Amino acid sequence: MEKYSVALIIVTFNRLKTLKRNLEFVRRQKRLPEYVVIVENGSTDGTLEFLESQSELDFLPIGENIGWSGGLDAGMTFAKQKWNPDFFWLMDDDSFPNADVLSTLISKLSVQNEPGIMGLIGCNFKYGMPYVPEPAPNVREVDFVLVDNALISKEVVEKIGNLDPGYFIMAEDYEYCKRAKKYGFKVWLWRDGNELVERLHLGSQLSSRSIIWRGYYHSRNHLLILRDYPSLKDSLGYIHRHGKFILHAVLFGKNKWEVVKFRFMGIWDGLRGIKGKRVDPLTLKRIPLK
What we know:
By secondary structure, this protein is of the alpha/beta class. 41% of the residues lie in helices and 18% in strands. The strands form three sheets. It has an eight-stranded mixed beta sheet with strand order 3-2-1-4-11-6-12-9, sandwiched between helices. The longest helix is centred in the last third of the chain and has 21 residues, at 232-252.
């Protein structure tokens, strides 16, 4: 089998215990990545001091929270400049891949005989609504995959660039998949019914106040995508889907009026094409435009 080089990029922020567990799973891979860089988004919980003690890892101290998409952008740029790998393996710090994940991703992507994106969770869209394919014993082309634990060919990154740091968090992978397909690359899903990655989804639980600020970025970023990739069907799907989110918050949600307020803030900023970190996840305060 041809030898490929892989750069693993992990983004972390204030989750030292979770990051340590994540690295345990990375080290158990049957096929280890040649390179690892951890993007440290300004943590205050001892993460930076821990990384300084890990001599086998590269890390990138950002000094502030630039979000998931900003961290991936910084990590991909670092990896390209330092190693120029054949594949980029992207990972959140609260994902724990089993020992076969990297070898499986390389195997499934390399046999396609063309560059692209291979993910483990994905879906197709119909009228803007997501539909997850049933498990199957073969790789399938889809509209979208999560970039968390996805493998991206070097050629894709060279052609279309990194994930957009302006999204901060939420929907950046959807935009990246649409951009890849626009430039002629394929997005594949490997989902055979076996759980290859344990995901904690920290910060997205319904009981967490993160549902407030995440709602802002979710509503805003999907509108940003509609601005760049206009579609009547997707627009109708956006109205239907985000209307349901707002109605559900009103009827059943905790902190309902804050959730609704931040959803409408996101819609307003999305209509105006405003990107970047505009709501602080820790304080929920608006961040002025520079």
